Amino acid sequence: MIQSSELILNPDGSVYHLNLKPENIAHDIIFVGDQNRVEKITQFFDSIEFSTQKREFKTQTGIFKGKRITVMSTGIGPDNIDIVINELDALVNIDLETRKPKENLTSLNIIRIGTSGSLQADIPVDSFVLSKFGLGLDNMLRSYLIDEVSNLEMEDAFVKHTNWDLKKGKPYVIACSEKLEKVIESDKMHKGITATAGGFYGPQGRVLRLNIQDEALNSKMDNFKYGDNQITNLEMETAAIYGLSALLGHNALSLNAIIANRASGTFSEDPYKAVDELIAYTLDKLAKQ
């Protein structure tokens, strides 16, 4: 039995942070970071059956072309992903009344739709990136036992290439769901490694008034390659989503509309159009699944 201090429920029986009960969610879930982006997706739904918000976690569940889908905002960062995925898993794989894990476990399909800047000149603005791997620079996942789901060889290659300071913790690498990759992929998708940072400023190489540990890290990441894979973009959620999903038996995939290209110094003339096109593409693929 899982103690009340470990799995916290609200007085109405919903999970603590997300304010959700099992019947409120579909098994196909789309993550967005910004709560205001939830309705940019659900505006395409035929109907919405449920909507709630607590803190930055906004959730809507409805029907799109006969497919039941949940859209949820996670907020920013790996720490929020730790909350969201653990509580989603509790909704489907723990009996909230007996507080015991279920014998028959459910696998959720989780797709993140985000925006990002490309690190590579050959990935132009307004294109889409599918994260074949998540490279975690954040250390959150190291609280769990991850060796069975991580790519140890790629981790070691990245540490060596960047001369990574292990006082910051060892980076981790987790692959996307092959199942969802087959559902979503197309010729429009660039594939590669998405790096996940634990912060927006120093962890991503930005300097305001504080010096950072490795001023050359971004340029070293730009030219890191492992096999056919290079680091395509840098953000704050993908690796954590991949890691927790793999550990808990869920399928996860991260997609980004590229609205800036750091290598060429360009920015999309219409970033909202790029995001809308990625949303429409993803919804259509999910509906046909």
From TrEMBL:
Domain of life (superkingdom): Bacteria
Matching InterPro entries: Nucleoside_phosphorylase_d, Nucleoside_phosphorylase_sf
Classification via CDD domains: UP_TbUP-like
EC number: 2.4.2.3
Catalysed conversion reaction: uridine + phosphate = alpha-D-ribose 1-phosphate + uracil
Pfam families from the UniProt entry: PNP_UDP_1
Residues covered by the Nucleoside phosphorylase domain: 29-266
Name this protein carries in UniProt: Uridine phosphorylase
Provenance organism: Flavobacterium tiangeerense
Lineage, broadest ranks: Bacteria, Pseudomonadati, Bacteroidota, Flavobacteriia, Flavobacteriales
